Amino acid sequence: MFRPCSSGWGTEMDVIFSPLVPWPALYIAAAITMLFAILAIWRGLGGWWLRAPAMAVLLLGLANPSLQDEERDPLSDIVVMIVDESASQRLSDRASQTAQAVEALTTDLTSRGMELRTITVPDGQGDAGTELMTALNDTLSEEPKSRIAGTILLTDGQLHDAARAPALEAPLHTLLTGRSTDWDRRLIVKNAPAFAILDEEITLTLRIENQGAVPRDIPDRASISIAIDGAEAQTFQVPTGEDLELPLKLPHGGMNVLQFNVAADETELTDRNNSAVVQINGVRDRLRVLLVSGEPHAGERTWRNLLKSDSAVDLVHFTILRPPEKQDGVPVSELSLIAFPTRELFLEKVDEFDLIIFDRYKRRGILPALYFDSIRQYVEKGGAVLVAAGPDFASADSIYRSPLGDIMPAEPTARVLDQGFTPLISELGARHPVTEGLEKFAPNPTVDGIPGWGRWMRQIEVKPLQGQTVMTGIEERPLLTLDRVGEGRIALMASDQAWLWHRGFEGGGPQLELLRRLAHWMMKEPDLEEEALTAIAEGQTMTLTRRTLALETGELEITAPDGTVTTLPLEETSPGRFTATFEGPEPGLYRLKEGDQESVVALGPAAPREFIETIASGDKLEDLVDATRGGILRLEGGIPNLRMVGEGRNAAGRGWIGLTPRNAYLTTNVTVTPLVSPWLFLFLAILLTVGAWLREGRR
């Protein structure tokens, strides 16, 4: 029985048992008592009706009944209110709807003597979206469930952690912000590969969707613009609500940034989900190389083995095994068992090669001037040629004296220097990506500025005409010279002794690494560009790198998605590399510019997770709310009233939501008093036993 007191305190009395012997022994004694009672009845003993109560009284005394008196302090009920303050809640007038509801509910609950736990939920870290259930879980873990009278969510219903919903015993209600007339348009990229092979067509699938209460006057077609690497965009009219397949070939190797924008309508909720940025890394399937070797020499097999060892290289090797000046009467056209398709290679299909290497080749009458002119045009149109010069390059039959000489970066002086020397990285080469840090790949450490690789034994003296000399040899004469010609590139190695590195002479050297870098530079791989501006994004932080052959750079201009321009100084961290870090204030496409170098980088998703779905809806919470008999109501129709409802009853209706009183309390004192003295039980048992004896003795 509970008796409330004027001080707010109360008492609760209960009868409890504290047996003087273990309960199993008491159960056994009760069974024996019942057995004796049945036996007495069967034997016809006249005092059985006195013996049975005597034993029952004795058993009751052993059970030791007591009166427990508890003093209790009633506890107030707790209501948890989760307030969604994510980015989508700042659309339209949702923030003001939420603020008004919080104020009204706080006043009402406080006046009822309830404790309110108000938790605000911002955007999740790393584009995690709205984490309402995570916040609810964390809050409930700190509160006693016996005091939770209900939970109220103030949100647009677009949460991203519904799987973390806790088990609830009290009603859960959702008060939706937003308007029934809201509508929005969004752009979806349904598939986009992270990598794609150059010159092969890939297909992107896009979709433009209209959500919500779309006005009747909105057309079923939309305008979409497409831009690659921040270049001028192209605009198309496309249907909405359909999958759109976009065939595409990547324009260059490395990272390609594609930006899609759908024209916004002034009546839609937001244009933040009208854009998408896709980053696809362009890679080459295979490197097609044509190796043209002259008179056989020790380095020829090295070139071939190096190229054949790379599974990504398709090699065609054209070798002159028998020079035509041999006076044996054999016509030039019959120098091979099978006629070599020189016309197809050097005229018709020369553009199919990514790189052409001339290894100690000289004019022999096999390739006429027309073929060399075709190769020159091939370079000017974007091809690449590497010349590994031997003694023949300094002779009258040098390929320099063919149409190829028009694009050569250096001219031979006709001197061949036969002496040992250590190839050195030039001052410019220390900044050029082809040779920067190449000494780190040497088999031995650098000593007194001399790299720890082996010597070469011959150098062809050349006079530089143009381009950049990145390696030098005897008395700082040009050894490796690189140049851009038209849209293509050419490299001249003024020695045929690079094979000594591969053979391990005097420890060898990084010939494979040098060849790899040369090939990638000629293929215009972004990582090997000497003038480049790149950015790597991690979360909201981007690392910016300006690569240049100049000794200094200007300030970097960063244009944010909203058009804000920020200037940032660049610091030289290694020869030819200037870097900086930038914390982007918002996701989107950032444009970078320094001097004549421009680039773009996507920081985070163009459309954050918060804006993928923006129409307020209770669909994602419906099952959880129904399980607790709660309700989903729109604040557009007004702030609902609060009612107290019994446990297990419907807790929501038109214009109202219910809370379940928990009647929780805190026990402050407990008093236990024996209900009857054990001596009284013993006296009654003896009295009944004597009575039974007297009754049976008279018979």
TrEMBL record:
Keywords: Membrane, Transmembrane, Transmembrane helix. The chain crosses the membrane at residues 20-41, 676-694. The keyword Ligase does not apply. InterPro entries: Class_I_gatase-like. This is Glutamine amidotransferase. It comes from Litoreibacter halocynthiae.
